[in-house]
Amino acid sequence: MKKLVGKVTKEEKNQILSLYERKNGLTELAKIIGSNDDIYEKMVKDMGETSLNFQQWWNDMSTKYNWESTENGNWEINFDTCEIFLINKDCDCCK
């Protein structure tokens, strides 16, 4: 089930969009360079920091806006509208 639970500002959306794009770029880079390259360790460190910043954004925004949450759910952002949705993985409609 996908439920609208809030909205963020364009500035806040741009923050998570930047982290999202960086995270995806680093994931693709990891596939290309493999673990034998010298740059791999730097990439892994950057990926860890980016992932922490990504999660921290979600934590900060959920606290700020008091979004509804569920134990097995996660939030998703629509980058076009800045809307935040709760995705509940336990609902019957998603099985």
Structure, briefly:
By secondary structure, the chain is of the alpha+beta class. It has helices at residues 10-33, 39-65, and strands spanning 2-7, 73-78, 83-88. The protein has one domain (2-94).
What are the SSEs and their pairings?
Layout: E1 2-7, H1 10-33, H2 39-65, E2 73-78, E3 83-88
Antiparallel strand pairs: 1-3, 2-3
Helix pairs in contact: 1-2
Explain what this protein looks like in three dimensions.
This protein has 95 residues and is an alpha+beta fold. The chain has one domain (2-94). Helices cover 54% and strands 19% of the residues. It contains two helices and three strands. It has a three-stranded antiparallel β-sheet, with no helix packed on it.
Instruction: Tell me roughly what share of residues is in helical segments.
Output: 40-55%
End-to-end distance, in Å? 10 Å
How many domains, in number, for the residues?
Answer: 1
The strand order across the widest sheet is 1-3-2
Beta-strand content estimate:
15-25%
- The total count of helices amounts to 2
List keywords for this structure.
3-stranded antiparallel sheet, 2 helices, elongated
